[in-house]
Amino acid sequence: MCCYIVGMNLSVNKSAAQANARPSYHHGDLRQSLLMAAKSLIAEAGIESLSLRKLAERAGVSRTAPYHHFSDKNDLLCAIAAEGFCRRHRAAAQAFDDPNLSPRDKFEQFICGYIQFAAENPEEYELMFGRNIWKQKNSTQELRDVAYPCFQHQLEMIRSWQQCGLIGGDNPLRTSQVIWGTVHGIAKLWIDGIYTDSAQIEEVSLCAVKMFINKTA
Amino acid sequence: MCCYIVGMNLSVNKSAAQANARPSYHHGDLRQSLLMAAKSLIAEAGIESLSLRKLAERAGVSRTAPYHHFSDKNDLLCAIAAEGFCRRHRAAAQAFDDPNLSPRDKFEQFICGYIQFAAENPEEYELMFGRNIWKQKNSTQELRDVAYPCFQHQLEMIRSWQQCGLIGGDNPLRTSQVIWGTVHGIAKLWIDGIYTDSAQIEEVSLCAVKMFINKTA
DNA sequence: GCTCAATTTTGACAGTGTCAAGATGTGTTG
DNA sequence: CAACACATCTTGACACTGTCAAAATTGAGC
Fold it and tell me: What's the pLDDT score for residue B176?
């Protein structure tokens, strides 16, 4: 496989399998390419079927090349998860800071948005909250640096909804854990294929909103 | 490895590695032995580290022997999960049918009992509700036959609590999905190691109970 | 006692993550 | 410009996995 020897002008008529062969020995931005390829592979066939070897092949690189950019398979997964937390965090913060929305609307937006995010990116969500990453000492420092503020933000939102009397519960931390558990559980049950009818996830989300909102409010 | 040749009277002074070697070629009840060994292996080191080969070795049998009792690794896992559903179902039904408990007590018992079951048997719970088993067409008919009545029973309990005005929500199915989601989510977040402080799982459960119960009741 | 089916074994294959050692570039210093 | 150091990439190898095919062993029924 000496595809890196060919000059740029000669690398035109090559087999489709080598379509993504790079012109030079050094890839240039392999780390980013690996992340991209990994995300597309995961979206195509699920996390559990992602192997470093298939990933390397798709990136047009040898089996062990990824090890120079990620110490581990776990390290790679953590990096992808971190990206997911950033995306989700931005979206949640944006809705919460929208001055045109009432607290009630924001709460509904949070619940439905969370579950919708998980439903639209099931494999990525599975990765972000899967046991493989968080169990034991598997989580990278980078991942924790991104994820913890995300969790903290949720806590602050819950606290604000409690303060304006929209939702009940005494201890904000416990309340936050319950509500987070609810959206996480609904998302998980749906993603994992336990809820048989998947079309009504929106209805379930709205039902959760109604059950948490104070009737007196 | 001709350990099955030795007569019963000669099989006394053997190495510790062959402690669980059986006296005859045919095991007798290998299927049950495999289930037992699998459960203990899972409890020891988690599901993901369970391999059929290690399992066979612990059962004192060759690598491929399990394939005559389970068509698949997945088949074995489904069988273990089915056992878990039976246990959980019995416990839940027993509490619900206790005539000495008020509806409120039963509800609290259900929420706390569910989460406690998951917390005490994290690996088994992970197996029962893990994606590997339910995703795609992986679930065995046997597993579904055991699990679906379990889900149905939950729905009926929720419906009864709604009818006596203990909890809100209109559509019983949706309400059931939300509450199930809540306990499942709390359990999962704890099992997967995302809640940092694990000692207060009881408090979280009680907070969930309070948030769902109607204030007017 | 012989046959047959159930059960278990050995052999093999493709796939996985990961380490060690060698090959190939790129940049930096004399 | 030459030589060296270093980052990057490759090949080779190892142990481990699930699973199939073919052979071996055993117990039950005629």
Answer: 96
